[in-house]
Design goal:
Elements: E1 7-13, H1 20-25, E2 33-38, H2 45-49, E3 57-61, H3 67-81, E4 86-89, H4 101-109, E5 115-119, H5 126-129, H6 132-149, E6 162-165, H7 166-171, H8 183-193, E7 198-202, H9 217-238
Parallel strand pairs: 1-2, 1-4, 2-3, 5-7
Antiparallel strand pairs: 4-6, 5-6
Helix pairs in contact: 6-8, 6-9, 8-9
Length: about 250
């Protein structure tokens, strides 16, 4: 529990047998439940996730790969079913620093947001640590997502280090979230449509010395272009209409 809120950490994982034990082992003690969603891995991810014999850990296995968004949705559903107040996403590859978790939770505990997301560009190390290709891509996508989502003050749209309240999860149509690359861009647009107050929080960029990306351009460009176009069309279609229930609790 953190500041009287129960907290779940959702860990989407696909073929992360070499990183998952450390990722799970570094989750802070104040977290109540660790929900590892093994997205139909072909390796030993599920067994190794349980390797530390931590009673907080449970593993949910997909029989078919659904994509990172699909894995996160499974984790959100489980956290919501358990009645936990906040669900945090921390990747199974260990690219999210657990020291930043309190900073993500504080805006929620203070009552100033229902969704907090990391922004690595607000940390001085980003220009030294993040690969140049990632910097360029993230800047382009973040600028585009500002327009399509309506969250003009948010940046680093591709950062997956996030925290969301139980009521914000309930406000989303989880079945309609885009499940693969493009998921964070789609989620932001849907959160804005639901009137969810969202804030950026500085987080550390984490890239190990042996970091390599398995993401190929053709795997990203078309899905994200589709998601951005769909979000933009939805915003135009609903321009001027009342926003969701959560808007009444504050502005974005």
């Amino acid at each position: 529990m953190y500041r009287q809120r129960t907290v779940a950490v959702v860990v989407p994982a696909y073929n992360e047998q070499h990183a998952i034990e450390r990722a799970v082992g570094t989750v802070p003690a104040f977290v109540d439940r660790i929900i590892v969603v093994d997205d139909a891995s072909h390796d030993d991810t599920a067994r190794r996730a349980l390797g530390r014999a931590d009673a907080r850990v449970e593993v949910i296995r997909h029989t078919a790969n659904r994509g990172v968004g699909g894995a996160i949705v499974t984790g959100y559903r489980r956290a919501h079913a358990l009645g936990l107040d906040v669900a945090v996403v921390m990747a199974g590859d260990g690219q999210m620093d657990p020291r930043d978790l309190p900073a993500l939770l504080d805006p929620i505990c203070d009552g100033s947001a229902d969704y907090a997301k990391g922004n690595r560009f607000r940390h001085a190390d980003v220009w030294r640590v993040m690969p140049a290709s990632r910097i360029a891509g993230n800047i382009v996508l973040s600028l585009a997502t500002k327009v399509t989502s309506g969250y003009w003050r948010l940046f680093d749209s591709q950062c997956g280090y996030t925290a969301i309240t139980r009521r914000a999860i309930a406000a989303l149509e989880l079945d309609r979230l885009f499940p693969r690359y493009g998921y964070p861009n789609d989620l932001l647009a849907r959160l804005h449509a639901a009137g969810v107050r969202a804030v950026d929080v500085p987080v550390r960029p984490v890239y190990g010395p042996r970091w390599t990306s398995g993401i190929k351009p053709h795997m990203v460009v078309y899905p994200i272009a589709f998601v951005l176009a769909r979000s933009w069309a939805a915003r135009l279609a609903t321009a001027g209409s009342p926003r969701g229930e959560l808007t009444r609790h504050g502005s974005t």
